[in-house]
Amino acid sequence: MVDEVEAFASALSKALGAAPNTALNYRRDLMDFRRFLLDRAKAQGEVVPGEISADDIRGYLGDLMDRRRRPATVQRRLFAIKAFFRWREQAAGALNPARAIHSPRSERRLPAILQQDEVRRLIETEMRGLTPARFRDRAIIETLYSCGLRVSELCSLDWRDIDWELGMVMVRRGKGNKDRLVPIGEPALAALAEWRRLMPIAWEPNGPVITNLRGGRLTTRAVEALLVRRLQAAGLRTPITPHGLRHCFATHMLNNGADLRSIQEMLGHASLATTQRYTHLNVAHLKEVYRRAHPRA
């Protein structure tokens, strides 16, 4: 099974144009399925994909649910399994045991977000020391919130991707391997310019925007860690991740009058249905607007 999973991941990256993270996640999920099958059979050998049945897949999904995995996680694992067997079916005419298995109902969890004044506190909180890292960290928070970027997209930015005159950022090879242009606000541009001026290693047009202090591209894990430190320094208790700032971007844009189609384009969502979940976060705001504006509220 290992060889076929590797071939599938390679086909995703090359023939289908999937983003590297997508291929990596599919591979990880399929290897977890393989581990389950080996444990279930108490086998020391290898799993043969052609011998996997629909009952094996159902058993794996049941095991995930027994271990209280989130429905979204179970759904993602099944999606990887379905894609793998669909690839085998199309490539070699193999039987597809996942064809008749339906995905569990998706969990509609509302993401935690910060209010607008809390985001301002997060950005403006002064960290100790006038070090380059302090200015870099502020530029990171400003850019994530200003553009609604995924953290992987932020870490992949090069200086050539920023149009300073137009106030636009080119997000290259985002989710789905698609490029998109996103507006960026003046405070974020100012923070990026200050960071570029103070970078310990001279910047280059084709070089990374967000680096460690040795000039290497900063990892997504490092961005997550610095956000935790900044939340603590600002005295904010909401457990916001870098992706949470993307949710803040979308929700605050919607609250202030932006239309869903524009937000969809800026976030890079393939489907408007993905963007529409932010309307659920907007209910309290809509009710307050209604109360203030309707003559018979």
Which properties best describe this structure?
297 residues, mainly alpha, DNA polymerase, domain 1, hpI Integrase, Chain A, 2 domains, 14 helices
Please provide a brief summary of the model.
By secondary structure, the chain is mostly helical. The chain has 14 helices and 3 strands.
Explain what the structure shows:
The protein is mainly alpha-helical and 297 residues long. A hairpin with an 8-residue loop joins strand 2 (168-171) and strand 3 (180-183). The protein has two domains: 2-92, DNA polymerase, domain 1 (Orthogonal Bundle), CATH 1.10.150; 116-289, hpI Integrase, Chain A. It has a three-stranded antiparallel sheet with strand order 1-2-3. The protein has helices at residues 2-14, 20-41, 54-66, 71-92, 116-124, 132-147, 151-156, 186-198, 220-234, 242-255, 260-267, 272-275, 278-281, 283-293; strands spanning 162-163, 168-171, 180-183.
What is the C-level CATH assignment of the largest domain?
Answer: Mainly Alpha
* Share of residues in helices: 55-70%
Describe the sheet with the most strands: 3 strands, antiparallel
Provide the structure class: mainly alpha
* CATH architectural category of the largest domain: Orthogonal Bundle
Number of helical elements: 14
Elements, N to C (H/E): HHHHHHHEEEHHHHHHH
* Total number of strands: 3
Domains, number: 2
The name of the CATH superfamily of the largest domain reads Intergrase catalytic core
| Main sheet strand line-up | 1-2-3
Approximate strand percentage: under 5%
